[in-house]
Amino acid sequence: MKKLITLFLVLGITGCSFLFPKKVEANTDITGTVQSRCTVATDTVGYYGNPNAYTLNTTPADGGQKPIVRFDTSLADAYYAQISYPESFSSSPSLSDNVTWTGGVTVAQTSSTDMSGYQAASTTTGAMRQYALTIAGTTWFEVTSSATYGGGNNTAFPGGSYTAVVTAQCIAQ
Asked: Over 70: is that where the pLDDT of 4 sits?
């Protein structure tokens, strides 16, 4: 009888462990949406003037217009503005010779005088200039671009339509 009671106790305890698991868990998702506090927009569309047969230039004196890019940020010290002048055409007639590119990016206007040091504090890597947006507000950047055809031989650009792209983006710090 003792063996029978012991057997029932062992089976009863084992059965209870199957009925009551030792570990209970749940996976619960946490989601969120982050909205950028920095926006980029074209304020003034640029276009090339053609002062001679071998040069395209955004300078107003050469018949061009400098593009202006606007950056709005509502959070200080959180973003960099990165703006690059073009180094190639995104579309053009077939070109059989070299194109030499020059350009620049400068602060054209700011919404606060506290941003007056942006140009001096900026850094340049190739055609790209980077600005730390340390003050919340709006900054307008002016881009210049010049393309000379023929590798210094003053070769005339073929007739047609030419497009080059300014790249402007907000980068989180």
From this structure: no
Strand pairing class (55-57; 99-110)? unpaired
Beta carbons of 90 and 165 less than 8 angstroms apart? yes
Q: What is the pLDDT of residues 18-68, one digit of tens each?
A: 555 677 788 888 888 887 899 999 999 999 999 999 999 999 999 999 999
Distances in whole angstroms, Cα of residue 11 to Cα of each of 1, 6, 14, 17, 23: 15, 9, 5, 10, 21
- Mean pLDDT in the chain? 90
Q: Where are the domains of the chain?
A: 38-172
Q: Give the number of C-alpha atoms closer than 13 A to the C-alpha of residue 127, restricted to the C-beta side.
A: 17
Task: DSSP letter for 3, please.
Answer: H
pTM: 0.81
Contact 167, 42 (CB under 8 A): no
Q: What string of H, E and C letters represents the secondary structure of 98-115?
A: CEEEEEEEEEEEECCHHH
| Interacting residues of 59 by C-beta distance below 8 A, sequence separation 6+ | 49, 66, 144, 146
